[in-house]
Amino acid sequence: MIRSVAGVSDLPTALIGCAAGFAADRTDAGIPIVRTLRERQGPRFLIYETLGERTLALSQIERRRDPARGYNPSLARFVEPILGDCLAGGIKIVGNFGAANPRAAGELLAGMAKRLGFPSARIAVVEGDDLSAALSPDEFAARETGGALLAARPPIIAANVYLGAVPIAEALDRGADIVVTGRVSDPSLALGPLIHSFGWQPDDWRRLACGTLAGHLLECGSQVTGGYFADPGIKDVPGMDTLGYPIAEIDADGGIVITKPEGTGGRVDRRTVTEQLLYEIHDPAAYLTPDVVLGITEVELAEIGPDRVRVTGARGTPRPETLKATVCIDSGLLAEAEISYAGPNAAARARLAIETVRKRMARRAPTLRTRADAIGLMSIHGDTDGTALDASTQTAMDVRVRFAAEAMEREPLELLNLEVEALYCAGPAGGGGVRARITPRLASASCLIERELVHPTVSFVGAER
Amino acid sequence: MNDTVEVPLYRLVHARAGDKGNRLNLAVICYDPACYPALAAQLTAERVAAIFASRRPTKVVRYDLPKLHAFNFVLDDVLEGGVNASLGLDGHGKGLSFLLLGSTVRLDKALASRKWADVVEIAADSRSDAQA
Questions:
Q1: What is the pLDDT of residues A171-187, one digit of tens each?
Q2: Cβ of B41 under 8 Å from any chain A Cβ?
Q3: Which residues does chain A have within 8 Å of residue B89's beta carbon, measured at their own beta carbons?
């Protein structure tokens, strides 16, 4: 690979836009980012983070059903609108949208590039995160942390380790236009392009921490630009329907500015950035990633222009010895059934419906633990034992009662759903709008895996495979 | 101190919830850095545990971020198993930041009388206050 031997400060600033923060994010968010990046110079990247904790297991189930699938189902919707502009403009795309089948995703993108007139686009696939064949159930169980879900050796649906930034950087060093991954640490999607752009060394903990911090701020897409933030009259955000997704400007020394495309909705200020800075953080002095341990206790933010926030003060310490893997197992079925009551005395009728179903289920399926919510009175802040709902003195004119239960078998769950539907005739007055369903559940365990057991690979779709 | 008034938290701070498994984190950020010491004194880990009592936290830790005039609360085992296992509608606990924001603290009248709209402006350009 070729890296500049000049001082790092001579290197141009890298720009990284994030067009998706989760699997079902808006699929048109990349368009204004790419428009903005095309007007700029220097290394430019568009990243997609589409792989939540459970998403990969769901993708693995889909791949078992159809070996040609198992990647993000919105992949084409995400990439097609921007692919031609990215390839023409030298904007590299990095995404974990490969999910359980990065190679199939890479092949889909190769076909799309060819159709758009770029038959020689170089598409790299990062693999090696799937450990399901590498370790036995006993070996996973021995490495489980924070629980004992694997102690009974349940069948494993998916087991994927969080890879780091290095294989992404390697793919870019080898000329990739697009890098498709499965499970990688979310911030690594940004750190990989920065290691590639600036030649940061693997023990340059401070700069790696800066790149990881940039990635952490980007990885949830619009959550740093006004999404998951707006609270009308309290924290107003303009243009929620046209939110600009974030762009980070990162210099070779690790200086970060967070901004967003011109002409988009949303906002970037100290408050939006602070909320995202602390999002899903536990100990702010030690945010663990495969690449570095990031500390944010000394981070400072400065508003340096409209929708521009400078971020300084990231601290880095050596990366953890072990890597985290998420292991998903089958966890039975979830039943949910709902019915509504409205108008005068609606809350009392809703409570009577709950009491009625509870009494009948206690007789007909005594071991089934059933939850009841009264949406409009107490649900989101409630608890499964019902203490918050019992204590609530709220009243309302429009209440939706919701029951939920889980079990390994269908029978008691179907019984619950039928009991709720029976309220149409046998329940309190005016109950309407029953909806009931039974859906499969997954549970996940975390394991700590020795680095020597993990072997990331980089290959190219087509010629270099 | 008798010269205090009860103030809803949502007037003083904004907050964001995040989840990892059965663990919730709540980022709590002061609009007005001048409120940070009073909140540091009152919004203790014990107080937050009491606000979330119906979710039976097994442990609550507060991390202080004075440079951001913010706190990060980490509440263990309050998500009823988390997104994979909860029987509730919001297994992520996305809405739990607002359970905290609906609570109240007592502030000096002088501090509490700093106006809402002004507070937002003060917060934007008083980084020195934040570290005072």
A1: 999 999 999 999 999 99
A2: no
A3: 373, 375, 379-380, 402
